[in-house]
Amino acid sequence: MESSSNDVQLKDRNALVLYGSETGNAQDIAEDLGRAVERMRFKTTVEEMNAVELASTPPYRDIDTVYLPWKQSLRSHLMSQYPLPESTEPISDDEPLPPRFVLSIDDIKGATATSSLTSTTSEDPPSSLLPIEEAREAIIQSASRVTPNDHWQDVRLFSMDMDEPAEPLLPGATLIVYPKNFKADVQTLIDQMGWQDQADLPVHATKVPKELEWCTKLEVCTLRDLLIHGLDITAVPRRGFLEKLFFLATDADQQERLKELIDPSGSQDFYDYTTRPRRTILEILGDFPSVKIPPSSAVDVFPVIRGREFSIANCASRLAVPDDQSTQAQPTRIHVEILAAMVEYRTIIRKPRVGLCSRYLKSLGAGAHINVGLKQGSGMQRLLTRPVIAVATGTGIAPIRMLHQARANATSPTPPGEMLLFFGCRSRKVDYYFADEWRRAGDGLTVIPAFSRDTDALIDMAKTVQLGGQDEPPPTAGMPLPPSLSASTAGLDMSETGMLRRRDAGKNYVQHHIRRHAYKVAAMIRAGAAVCVCGSSGTMPKAVRLALEDALVAGGLCATAAEAEEYLTTRVEIWQETW
Protein backbone atom coordinates (compact mmCIF):
# COMPACT_ATOMS: atom_id res chain seq x y z
CA MET A 1 0.00 0.00 0.00
CA GLU A 2 2.87 2.34 0.85
CA SER A 3 4.56 1.55 -2.46
CA SER A 4 1.38 2.39 -4.37
CA SER A 5 1.07 5.68 -2.53
CA ASN A 6 4.69 6.51 -3.34
CA ASP A 7 4.12 5.73 -7.02
CA VAL A 8 1.18 8.16 -7.11
CA GLN A 9 3.26 10.90 -5.50
CA LEU A 10 6.18 10.32 -7.87
CA LYS A 11 3.89 10.34 -10.89
CA ASP A 12 2.91 13.94 -10.19
CA ARG A 13 6.52 15.15 -9.93
CA ASN A 14 7.08 16.89 -13.28
CA ALA A 15 9.64 19.55 -14.12
CA LEU A 16 10.17 21.51 -17.33
CA VAL A 17 13.54 23.14 -18.07
CA LEU A 18 13.62 25.61 -20.97
CA TYR A 19 16.69 27.10 -22.62
CA GLY A 20 17.58 29.51 -25.39
CA SER A 21 20.99 28.88 -26.92
CA GLU A 22 23.07 29.77 -29.97
CA THR A 23 26.47 28.70 -28.68
CA GLY A 24 25.35 25.57 -26.80
CA ASN A 25 26.29 26.91 -23.35
CA ALA A 26 22.68 27.40 -22.23
CA GLN A 27 21.71 23.97 -23.58
CA ASP A 28 24.53 22.34 -21.65
CA ILE A 29 23.43 24.06 -18.43
CA ALA A 30 19.79 23.14 -19.04
CA GLU A 31 20.64 19.47 -19.58
CA ASP A 32 22.85 19.43 -16.48
CA LEU A 33 20.04 21.03 -14.50
CA GLY A 34 17.59 18.53 -15.92
CA ARG A 35 19.78 15.64 -14.74
CA ALA A 36 20.09 17.19 -11.27
CA VAL A 37 16.33 17.57 -10.98
CA GLU A 38 15.78 14.05 -12.31
CA ARG A 39 17.88 12.70 -9.44
CA MET A 40 15.22 14.12 -7.12
CA ARG A 41 12.75 11.79 -8.82
CA PHE A 42 11.14 14.41 -11.03
CA LYS A 43 10.04 13.42 -14.51
CA THR A 44 12.12 16.04 -16.33
CA THR A 45 11.67 17.53 -19.77
CA VAL A 46 14.39 19.74 -21.28
CA GLU A 47 13.23 21.78 -24.27
CA GLU A 48 14.49 24.64 -26.41
CA MET A 49 12.72 27.95 -25.84
CA ASN A 50 12.01 30.05 -28.91
CA ALA A 51 10.49 33.49 -29.37
CA VAL A 52 12.47 35.07 -26.54
CA GLU A 53 15.36 37.50 -26.69
CA LEU A 54 18.54 35.72 -25.71
CA ALA A 55 20.88 37.12 -23.07
CA SER A 56 24.63 36.87 -23.48
CA THR A 57 26.59 34.56 -21.22
CA PRO A 58 30.13 34.82 -19.91
CA PRO A 59 32.91 32.62 -21.28
CA TYR A 60 32.19 28.94 -20.61
CA ARG A 61 34.82 28.57 -17.91
CA ASP A 62 33.23 31.47 -15.94
CA ILE A 63 29.66 30.20 -16.03
CA ASP A 64 30.18 27.73 -13.18
CA THR A 65 30.85 30.52 -10.68
CA VAL A 66 27.29 31.75 -11.22
CA TYR A 67 25.46 28.58 -12.14
CA LEU A 68 26.71 26.01 -9.61
CA PRO A 69 25.68 27.92 -6.45
CA TRP A 70 22.30 28.63 -8.04
CA LYS A 71 21.92 24.95 -8.94
CA GLN A 72 22.56 23.92 -5.32
CA SER A 73 20.07 26.53 -4.13
CA LEU A 74 17.45 25.18 -6.54
CA ARG A 75 18.09 21.63 -5.33
CA SER A 76 17.52 22.68 -1.71
CA HIS A 77 14.39 24.62 -2.66
CA LEU A 78 12.86 21.73 -4.59
CA MET A 79 13.58 19.22 -1.84
CA SER A 80 11.98 21.48 0.77
CA GLN A 81 8.93 22.37 -1.33
CA TYR A 82 8.48 18.99 -3.01
CA PRO A 83 9.80 16.38 -0.54
CA LEU A 84 10.11 12.78 -1.64
CA PRO A 85 8.09 10.04 0.09
CA GLU A 86 9.84 8.84 3.26
CA SER A 87 10.94 5.53 1.74
CA THR A 88 12.34 7.11 -1.48
CA GLU A 89 15.78 8.60 -1.78
CA PRO A 90 17.16 10.89 -4.50
CA ILE A 91 19.21 9.17 -7.18
CA SER A 92 22.85 9.23 -6.11
CA ASP A 93 25.41 11.13 -8.20
CA ASP A 94 27.34 7.85 -8.39
CA GLU A 95 24.48 6.15 -10.20
CA PRO A 96 23.83 6.73 -13.94
CA LEU A 97 20.45 8.11 -14.92
CA PRO A 98 18.26 6.00 -17.22
CA PRO A 99 18.68 6.93 -20.91
CA ARG A 100 16.11 9.27 -22.39
CA PHE A 101 16.48 7.83 -25.89
CA VAL A 102 17.00 4.17 -26.71
CA LEU A 103 17.51 2.57 -30.12
CA SER A 104 16.43 -0.92 -30.95
CA ILE A 105 18.55 -2.64 -33.59
CA ASP A 106 17.42 -5.41 -35.91
CA ASP A 107 20.23 -7.77 -35.03
CA ILE A 108 18.66 -10.84 -36.60
CA LYS A 109 21.39 -12.99 -38.12
CA GLY A 110 21.75 -12.27 -41.80
CA ALA A 111 19.59 -9.13 -41.69
CA THR A 112 20.51 -6.44 -44.20
CA ALA A 113 19.36 -2.88 -44.79
CA THR A 114 19.11 -0.88 -47.95
CA SER A 115 19.43 2.71 -46.80
CA SER A 116 18.26 5.59 -48.95
CA LEU A 117 20.60 8.01 -47.17
CA THR A 118 24.04 6.42 -47.06
CA SER A 119 25.19 6.47 -50.66
CA THR A 120 27.30 3.56 -51.89
CA THR A 121 29.19 5.91 -54.22
CA SER A 122 32.36 7.79 -53.35
CA GLU A 123 30.40 10.90 -52.35
CA ASP A 124 31.65 12.18 -49.03
CA PRO A 125 29.53 13.20 -47.32
CA PRO A 126 26.59 11.52 -49.12
CA SER A 127 24.40 13.94 -51.10
CA SER A 128 21.10 12.32 -50.08
CA LEU A 129 18.63 14.72 -48.48
CA LEU A 130 16.82 14.27 -45.17
CA PRO A 131 13.03 14.45 -44.89
CA ILE A 132 13.26 17.42 -42.53
CA GLU A 133 9.98 19.20 -41.86
CA GLU A 134 9.87 22.69 -43.43
CA ALA A 135 13.21 22.15 -45.20
CA ARG A 136 13.51 22.63 -48.95
CA GLU A 137 15.92 21.51 -51.63
CA ALA A 138 18.38 24.08 -52.92
CA ILE A 139 20.79 23.82 -55.84
CA ILE A 140 24.18 25.46 -55.45
CA GLN A 141 24.91 27.72 -58.43
CA SER A 142 28.31 28.94 -57.28
CA ALA A 143 30.58 28.86 -54.22
CA SER A 144 33.11 31.62 -54.85
CA ARG A 145 35.92 32.52 -52.51
CA VAL A 146 35.82 36.29 -51.93
CA THR A 147 39.06 36.64 -49.96
CA PRO A 148 42.49 36.27 -51.64
CA ASN A 149 43.89 32.76 -51.77
CA ASP A 150 46.89 33.83 -49.71
CA HIS A 151 44.72 35.32 -46.95
CA TRP A 152 44.44 33.26 -43.79
CA GLN A 153 40.62 33.34 -43.74
CA ASP A 154 38.57 31.62 -46.40
CA VAL A 155 35.27 33.47 -46.89
CA ARG A 156 32.90 32.28 -49.59
CA LEU A 157 29.77 33.63 -51.24
CA PHE A 158 27.32 30.79 -51.85
CA SER A 159 24.62 31.36 -54.46
CA MET A 160 21.72 28.95 -54.67
CA ASP A 161 18.27 28.56 -56.21
CA MET A 162 15.20 27.10 -54.52
CA ASP A 163 11.41 27.15 -54.59
CA GLU A 164 9.91 30.42 -53.37
CA PRO A 165 8.43 30.27 -49.85
CA ALA A 166 4.79 31.16 -49.25
CA GLU A 167 5.76 34.53 -47.76
CA PRO A 168 8.41 36.80 -49.34
CA LEU A 169 11.64 36.86 -47.35
CA LEU A 170 12.06 40.04 -45.32
CA PRO A 171 15.34 41.76 -44.43
CA GLY A 172 17.00 39.92 -41.56
CA ALA A 173 15.89 36.50 -42.82
CA THR A 174 18.29 33.60 -42.34
CA LEU A 175 19.07 30.41 -44.24
CA ILE A 176 19.64 27.22 -42.24
CA VAL A 177 22.24 24.73 -43.46
CA TYR A 178 22.11 21.13 -42.19
CA PRO A 179 25.71 19.83 -42.17
CA LYS A 180 26.82 16.20 -42.24
CA ASN A 181 29.72 14.15 -40.96
CA PHE A 182 32.26 12.61 -43.31
CA LYS A 183 32.39 8.87 -43.90
CA ALA A 184 35.96 8.45 -42.64
CA ASP A 185 35.14 10.03 -39.27
CA VAL A 186 32.05 7.88 -38.90
CA GLN A 187 34.02 4.73 -39.71
CA THR A 188 36.65 5.72 -37.13
CA LEU A 189 33.94 5.92 -34.47
CA ILE A 190 32.39 2.62 -35.57
CA ASP A 191 35.78 0.93 -35.28
CA GLN A 192 36.52 2.53 -31.89
CA MET A 193 33.20 1.37 -30.47
CA GLY A 194 33.23 -2.08 -32.10
CA TRP A 195 29.97 -1.42 -33.96
CA GLN A 196 31.02 -3.04 -37.24
CA ASP A 197 28.30 -5.70 -37.04
CA GLN A 198 25.50 -3.26 -36.10
CA ALA A 199 26.34 -0.15 -38.13
CA ASP A 200 24.35 -1.09 -41.22
CA LEU A 201 21.38 -2.78 -39.57
CA PRO A 202 17.96 -1.09 -39.36
CA VAL A 203 17.32 0.85 -36.15
CA HIS A 204 14.05 1.93 -34.57
CA ALA A 205 13.13 4.36 -31.81
CA THR A 206 9.85 5.35 -30.22
CA LYS A 207 11.30 8.66 -29.01
CA VAL A 208 14.09 10.79 -30.47
CA PRO A 209 15.23 14.42 -30.10
CA LYS A 210 13.35 16.91 -32.26
CA GLU A 211 16.36 17.29 -34.56
CA LEU A 212 16.27 13.55 -35.39
CA GLU A 213 12.56 13.16 -36.12
CA TRP A 214 13.44 12.68 -39.78
CA CYS A 215 14.74 9.18 -39.00
CA THR A 216 11.25 8.02 -38.00
CA LYS A 217 9.94 8.96 -41.46
CA LEU A 218 12.35 6.72 -43.35
CA GLU A 219 11.44 3.24 -44.46
CA VAL A 220 14.93 2.13 -43.42
CA CYS A 221 17.31 4.01 -41.15
CA THR A 222 20.62 2.55 -39.98
CA LEU A 223 23.00 3.46 -37.20
CA ARG A 224 25.44 4.68 -39.87
CA ASP A 225 22.73 7.00 -41.22
CA LEU A 226 22.30 8.55 -37.79
CA LEU A 227 26.04 9.00 -37.39
CA ILE A 228 26.49 10.68 -40.78
CA HIS A 229 23.40 12.87 -40.82
CA GLY A 230 22.29 13.35 -37.24
CA LEU A 231 24.86 12.92 -34.44
CA ASP A 232 27.67 15.43 -33.89
CA ILE A 233 30.78 13.32 -33.34
CA THR A 234 33.32 16.10 -34.02
CA ALA A 235 31.95 18.70 -31.61
CA VAL A 236 33.87 19.96 -28.60
CA PRO A 237 32.03 18.09 -25.82
CA ARG A 238 30.21 19.58 -22.86
CA ARG A 239 30.65 18.32 -19.33
CA GLY A 240 27.47 16.22 -19.57
CA PHE A 241 29.02 14.11 -22.33
CA LEU A 242 32.07 13.32 -20.20
CA GLU A 243 29.77 12.43 -17.30
CA LYS A 244 28.16 9.76 -19.45
CA LEU A 245 31.58 8.46 -20.46
CA PHE A 246 32.50 8.20 -16.77
CA PHE A 247 29.79 5.60 -16.20
CA LEU A 248 30.86 3.65 -19.31
CA ALA A 249 34.62 3.53 -18.69
CA THR A 250 35.94 0.17 -17.47
CA ASP A 251 39.56 1.15 -16.83
CA ALA A 252 40.06 2.51 -13.29
CA ASP A 253 42.64 5.13 -14.29
CA GLN A 254 40.51 6.41 -17.16
CA GLN A 255 37.46 6.53 -14.93
CA GLU A 256 39.39 8.52 -12.34
CA ARG A 257 40.54 11.00 -14.98
CA LEU A 258 36.99 11.45 -16.24
CA LYS A 259 35.83 12.04 -12.67
CA GLU A 260 38.40 14.82 -12.33
CA LEU A 261 37.19 16.44 -15.53
CA ILE A 262 33.50 16.45 -14.57
CA ASP A 263 34.13 17.65 -11.01
CA PRO A 264 32.65 21.20 -10.80
CA SER A 265 35.63 22.26 -8.68
CA GLY A 266 37.91 21.40 -11.61
CA SER A 267 36.36 23.72 -14.16
CA GLN A 268 39.75 25.05 -15.27
CA ASP A 269 41.01 21.50 -15.85
CA PHE A 270 37.92 20.74 -17.94
CA TYR A 271 38.37 23.97 -19.89
CA ASP A 272 42.06 23.31 -20.54
CA TYR A 273 41.37 19.78 -21.78
CA THR A 274 38.34 20.46 -23.98
CA THR A 275 37.49 24.06 -24.80
CA ARG A 276 40.91 25.71 -25.01
CA PRO A 277 42.43 23.19 -27.50
CA ARG A 278 39.00 22.54 -29.09
CA ARG A 279 39.43 18.79 -28.57
CA THR A 280 36.69 16.86 -30.38
CA ILE A 281 34.51 13.99 -29.24
CA LEU A 282 36.31 11.60 -31.57
CA GLU A 283 39.67 12.61 -30.12
CA ILE A 284 38.43 12.27 -26.55
CA LEU A 285 37.08 8.78 -27.20
CA GLY A 286 40.55 7.93 -28.49
CA ASP A 287 41.99 9.14 -25.16
CA PHE A 288 39.65 6.81 -23.23
CA PRO A 289 39.68 3.52 -25.16
CA SER A 290 37.98 1.56 -22.37
CA VAL A 291 34.77 3.49 -23.03
CA LYS A 292 32.47 1.37 -25.18
CA ILE A 293 29.13 3.06 -25.86
CA PRO A 294 26.30 0.58 -26.47
CA PRO A 295 24.92 1.19 -29.98
CA SER A 296 21.44 1.37 -28.48
CA SER A 297 22.57 4.42 -26.46
CA ALA A 298 24.15 6.37 -29.33
CA VAL A 299 21.32 8.91 -29.55
CA ASP A 300 21.31 9.40 -25.79
CA VAL A 301 25.08 9.91 -25.48
CA PHE A 302 26.07 11.98 -28.53
CA PRO A 303 24.85 15.54 -29.16
CA VAL A 304 22.71 16.06 -32.22
CA ILE A 305 23.74 18.03 -35.29
CA ARG A 306 21.97 21.37 -35.21
CA GLY A 307 21.24 23.40 -38.31
CA ARG A 308 23.53 26.42 -38.71
CA GLU A 309 21.92 29.78 -39.49
CA PHE A 310 23.43 32.24 -41.97
CA SER A 311 22.12 35.72 -42.66
CA ILE A 312 20.78 35.98 -46.20
CA ALA A 313 22.96 38.44 -48.09
CA ASN A 314 20.63 39.51 -50.89
CA CYS A 315 17.06 40.55 -51.48
CA ALA A 316 15.96 37.12 -52.73
CA SER A 317 15.03 37.68 -56.38
CA ARG A 318 12.70 35.62 -58.52
CA LEU A 319 14.27 33.72 -61.39
CA ALA A 320 13.04 34.23 -64.93
CA VAL A 321 10.94 31.35 -66.28
CA PRO A 322 12.28 29.86 -69.56
CA ASP A 323 9.99 30.51 -72.56
CA ASP A 324 9.33 26.80 -73.09
CA GLN A 325 8.02 26.51 -69.51
CA SER A 326 6.02 29.74 -69.31
CA THR A 327 2.70 28.00 -69.98
CA GLN A 328 3.35 25.14 -67.58
CA ALA A 329 2.55 25.13 -63.88
CA GLN A 330 6.00 25.49 -62.39
CA PRO A 331 6.83 26.60 -58.84
CA THR A 332 8.42 30.02 -58.71
CA ARG A 333 12.16 29.83 -58.02
CA ILE A 334 14.23 32.37 -56.13
CA HIS A 335 17.93 33.14 -55.93
CA VAL A 336 19.50 33.34 -52.45
CA GLU A 337 23.05 34.19 -51.35
CA ILE A 338 24.91 33.71 -48.08
CA LEU A 339 28.36 34.95 -47.04
CA ALA A 340 30.10 32.31 -44.94
CA ALA A 341 33.49 32.36 -43.23
CA MET A 342 35.09 28.94 -43.17
CA VAL A 343 36.06 28.09 -39.58
CA GLU A 344 39.58 26.64 -39.60
CA TYR A 345 42.34 27.38 -37.10
CA ARG A 346 45.11 25.80 -35.05
CA THR A 347 45.47 25.19 -31.33
CA ILE A 348 48.03 23.28 -29.29
CA ILE A 349 46.77 20.15 -31.05
CA ARG A 350 48.73 19.57 -34.25
CA LYS A 351 45.74 18.73 -36.43
CA PRO A 352 43.92 21.89 -37.66
CA ARG A 353 40.50 22.53 -36.15
CA VAL A 354 37.74 22.72 -38.77
CA GLY A 355 34.10 23.52 -38.06
CA LEU A 356 31.57 20.83 -38.97
CA CYS A 357 29.48 23.15 -41.13
CA SER A 358 32.52 24.80 -42.70
CA ARG A 359 33.93 21.45 -43.75
CA TYR A 360 30.56 20.48 -45.21
CA LEU A 361 30.18 23.76 -47.10
CA LYS A 362 33.70 23.51 -48.50
CA SER A 363 32.78 20.15 -50.01
CA LEU A 364 29.94 21.70 -52.02
CA GLY A 365 30.39 22.88 -55.57
CA ALA A 366 28.16 24.14 -58.35
CA GLY A 367 25.30 21.74 -59.00
CA ALA A 368 25.21 20.27 -55.50
CA HIS A 369 21.76 19.65 -54.00
CA ILE A 370 21.38 20.45 -50.31
CA ASN A 371 18.65 20.73 -47.72
CA VAL A 372 18.08 24.20 -46.32
CA GLY A 373 15.59 25.88 -44.06
CA LEU A 374 14.38 29.47 -44.19
CA LYS A 375 13.69 31.60 -41.14
CA GLN A 376 11.74 34.78 -41.71
CA GLY A 377 13.26 38.11 -40.76
CA SER A 378 11.69 40.40 -38.20
CA GLY A 379 12.31 43.94 -37.07
CA MET A 380 14.24 45.13 -40.11
CA GLN A 381 11.03 45.35 -42.15
CA ARG A 382 10.26 48.60 -40.32
CA LEU A 383 13.51 50.07 -41.65
CA LEU A 384 12.62 50.00 -45.34
CA THR A 385 11.71 53.69 -45.54
CA ARG A 386 13.16 55.51 -42.53
CA PRO A 387 16.74 56.78 -42.15
CA VAL A 388 19.18 54.06 -41.03
CA ILE A 389 22.60 54.07 -39.43
CA ALA A 390 24.10 50.62 -40.07
CA VAL A 391 27.19 49.24 -38.38
CA ALA A 392 28.61 45.97 -39.69
CA THR A 393 31.85 44.07 -39.23
CA GLY A 394 33.13 41.14 -41.32
CA THR A 395 30.43 38.83 -42.63
CA GLY A 396 27.95 40.88 -40.60
CA ILE A 397 27.63 42.93 -43.78
CA ALA A 398 25.30 40.21 -45.18
CA PRO A 399 22.00 41.30 -43.54
CA ILE A 400 22.86 44.96 -44.21
CA ARG A 401 23.29 44.19 -47.91
CA MET A 402 19.90 42.48 -47.93
CA LEU A 403 18.34 45.50 -46.21
CA HIS A 404 19.95 47.92 -48.67
CA GLN A 405 18.73 45.92 -51.69
CA ALA A 406 15.22 45.69 -50.22
CA ARG A 407 15.17 49.46 -49.71
CA ALA A 408 16.38 50.03 -53.27
CA ASN A 409 13.70 47.69 -54.66
CA ALA A 410 10.86 49.01 -52.49
CA THR A 411 7.77 50.17 -54.41
CA SER A 412 6.66 52.69 -51.80
CA PRO A 413 5.74 56.11 -53.25
CA THR A 414 7.95 57.65 -50.56
CA PRO A 415 11.66 57.16 -51.24
CA PRO A 416 13.61 55.56 -48.39
CA GLY A 417 15.46 57.81 -45.97
CA GLU A 418 19.20 58.22 -45.99
CA MET A 419 21.35 55.20 -45.08
CA LEU A 420 24.76 55.59 -43.46
CA LEU A 421 26.91 52.45 -43.26
CA PHE A 422 30.01 52.00 -41.11
CA PHE A 423 31.68 48.84 -42.44
CA GLY A 424 34.55 47.36 -40.43
CA CYS A 425 37.03 45.05 -42.12
CA ARG A 426 40.74 44.36 -42.09
CA SER A 427 41.86 45.74 -45.43
CA ARG A 428 40.55 47.33 -48.59
CA LYS A 429 42.18 44.55 -50.66
CA VAL A 430 41.30 41.57 -48.45
CA ASP A 431 37.79 41.63 -46.99
CA TYR A 432 35.99 44.75 -48.18
CA TYR A 433 33.06 42.59 -49.26
CA PHE A 434 30.84 43.84 -52.11
CA ALA A 435 33.10 46.88 -52.60
CA ASP A 436 31.98 47.42 -56.21
CA GLU A 437 28.34 47.50 -55.10
CA TRP A 438 29.04 50.13 -52.45
CA ARG A 439 30.81 52.31 -55.01
CA ARG A 440 27.78 52.10 -57.34
CA ALA A 441 25.22 52.61 -54.57
CA GLY A 442 24.27 56.20 -55.40
CA ASP A 443 23.26 59.10 -53.22
CA GLY A 444 20.92 57.15 -50.92
CA LEU A 445 23.77 55.26 -49.26
CA THR A 446 27.03 56.55 -47.79
CA VAL A 447 29.59 53.90 -46.88
CA ILE A 448 32.40 54.65 -44.44
CA PRO A 449 34.83 51.72 -44.36
CA ALA A 450 37.03 51.15 -41.33
CA PHE A 451 40.14 49.28 -42.51
CA SER A 452 41.69 48.23 -39.21
CA ARG A 453 44.91 46.82 -40.73
CA ASP A 454 45.57 49.42 -43.45
CA THR A 455 48.08 51.87 -42.02
CA ASP A 456 47.15 54.62 -44.47
CA ALA A 457 43.39 54.26 -43.99
CA LEU A 458 42.94 57.08 -41.47
CA ILE A 459 44.83 59.61 -43.59
CA ASP A 460 43.08 58.48 -46.75
CA MET A 461 39.62 58.68 -45.20
CA ALA A 462 40.29 62.11 -43.71
CA LYS A 463 40.97 63.41 -47.24
CA THR A 464 38.12 61.76 -49.12
CA VAL A 465 35.01 61.28 -46.96
CA GLN A 466 32.34 63.93 -47.17
CA LEU A 467 28.88 63.71 -45.65
CA GLY A 468 26.00 65.95 -46.62
CA GLY A 469 28.36 68.33 -48.39
CA GLN A 470 30.20 69.16 -45.17
CA ASP A 471 33.61 67.84 -44.23
CA GLU A 472 33.79 66.08 -40.89
CA PRO A 473 36.66 67.11 -38.65
CA PRO A 474 39.76 64.90 -39.03
CA PRO A 475 40.37 62.33 -36.27
CA THR A 476 42.96 64.46 -34.52
CA ALA A 477 41.24 67.82 -34.35
CA GLY A 478 37.96 69.47 -33.41
CA MET A 479 36.41 66.39 -31.84
CA PRO A 480 35.17 66.65 -28.27
CA LEU A 481 36.11 63.47 -26.41
CA PRO A 482 34.77 61.97 -23.18
CA PRO A 483 37.02 62.49 -20.15
CA SER A 484 38.08 58.84 -20.27
CA LEU A 485 39.77 59.46 -23.65
CA SER A 486 41.74 62.51 -22.58
CA ALA A 487 45.51 62.39 -22.22
CA SER A 488 45.33 62.98 -18.50
CA THR A 489 45.40 59.97 -16.21
CA ALA A 490 43.90 61.84 -13.28
CA GLY A 491 40.63 60.29 -12.22
CA LEU A 492 40.98 57.57 -14.86
CA ASP A 493 37.74 55.65 -15.39
CA MET A 494 38.54 52.00 -14.64
CA SER A 495 35.02 50.70 -15.33
CA GLU A 496 34.25 48.43 -18.29
CA THR A 497 32.91 51.48 -20.13
CA GLY A 498 36.09 53.42 -19.51
CA MET A 499 38.28 50.50 -20.55
CA LEU A 500 36.39 50.09 -23.83
CA ARG A 501 36.65 53.79 -24.64
CA ARG A 502 40.38 53.86 -23.95
CA ARG A 503 40.88 50.72 -26.03
CA ASP A 504 39.19 52.44 -29.00
CA ALA A 505 41.26 55.59 -28.79
CA GLY A 506 43.37 56.12 -31.90
CA LYS A 507 42.17 52.92 -33.62
CA ASN A 508 40.53 52.52 -36.98
CA TYR A 509 37.50 50.50 -36.00
CA VAL A 510 33.85 51.22 -36.74
CA GLN A 511 33.38 52.82 -33.32
CA HIS A 512 36.30 55.17 -34.06
CA HIS A 513 34.55 56.39 -37.21
CA ILE A 514 31.21 56.77 -35.44
CA ARG A 515 32.88 59.23 -33.05
CA ARG A 516 34.70 60.90 -35.91
CA HIS A 517 31.39 61.51 -37.73
CA ALA A 518 29.53 62.46 -34.56
CA TYR A 519 27.78 65.49 -36.10
CA LYS A 520 26.27 63.42 -38.92
CA VAL A 521 25.30 60.56 -36.58
CA ALA A 522 23.61 62.94 -34.14
CA ALA A 523 21.78 64.73 -36.96
CA MET A 524 20.41 61.48 -38.38
CA ILE A 525 19.29 60.23 -34.98
CA ARG A 526 17.63 63.58 -34.35
CA ALA A 527 15.77 63.01 -37.63
CA GLY A 528 14.49 59.61 -36.44
CA ALA A 529 17.13 57.22 -37.78
CA ALA A 530 17.15 53.62 -36.59
CA VAL A 531 20.41 51.79 -35.84
CA CYS A 532 21.42 48.32 -37.10
CA VAL A 533 24.42 46.52 -35.59
CA CYS A 534 25.59 43.27 -37.22
CA GLY A 535 28.69 41.12 -36.77
CA SER A 536 30.74 39.76 -33.90
CA SER A 537 29.04 39.38 -30.52
CA GLY A 538 32.21 40.09 -28.52
CA THR A 539 33.11 43.60 -27.43
CA MET A 540 32.03 45.18 -30.72
CA PRO A 541 28.32 45.78 -29.90
CA LYS A 542 29.21 47.32 -26.52
CA ALA A 543 31.91 49.48 -28.06
CA VAL A 544 29.55 50.63 -30.82
CA ARG A 545 26.90 51.63 -28.30
CA LEU A 546 29.44 53.63 -26.29
CA ALA A 547 30.57 55.32 -29.50
CA LEU A 548 26.97 56.24 -30.32
CA GLU A 549 26.56 57.75 -26.85
CA ASP A 550 29.75 59.77 -27.33
CA ALA A 551 28.55 60.89 -30.77
CA LEU A 552 25.25 62.15 -29.35
CA VAL A 553 27.17 64.24 -26.84
CA ALA A 554 29.82 65.49 -29.29
CA GLY A 555 27.15 66.14 -31.93
CA GLY A 556 25.18 68.34 -29.57
CA LEU A 557 22.07 66.18 -29.23
CA CYS A 558 22.70 65.29 -25.58
CA ALA A 559 24.53 67.15 -22.83
CA THR A 560 25.99 64.19 -20.91
CA ALA A 561 26.86 60.54 -21.40
CA ALA A 562 24.07 59.56 -18.99
CA GLU A 563 21.56 61.54 -21.04
CA ALA A 564 22.86 59.95 -24.23
CA GLU A 565 22.51 56.46 -22.74
CA GLU A 566 18.90 57.16 -21.80
CA TYR A 567 18.21 58.67 -25.22
CA LEU A 568 19.46 55.56 -27.02
CA THR A 569 17.52 53.29 -24.69
CA THR A 570 14.18 55.06 -24.85
CA ARG A 571 14.05 56.93 -28.16
CA VAL A 572 16.15 55.06 -30.73
CA GLU A 573 15.19 51.76 -32.34
CA ILE A 574 18.26 49.51 -32.36
CA TRP A 575 18.19 46.25 -34.33
CA GLN A 576 21.07 43.90 -33.52
CA GLU A 577 22.13 40.64 -35.15
CA THR A 578 25.39 39.38 -33.68
CA TRP A 579 26.90 35.95 -33.28
TrEMBL record:
Domain Oxidoreductase FAD/NAD(P)-binding: 391-441
Requisite cofactors: FMN; FAD
Cross-referenced Gene3D superfamilies: 3.40.50.360, NADPH-cytochrome p450 Reductase, Chain A, domain 3, Nucleotide-binding domain of ferredoxin-NADP reductase (FNR) module, Translation factors
A UniProt-annotated Pfam family: FAD_binding_1
Record's GO cellular component terms: cytosol
GO molecular function, one term: FMN binding
Keyword check for Oxidoreductase: yes
Protein name stated in the entry: Uncharacterized protein
Lineage: Eukaryota, Fungi, Dikarya, Ascomycota, Pezizomycotina
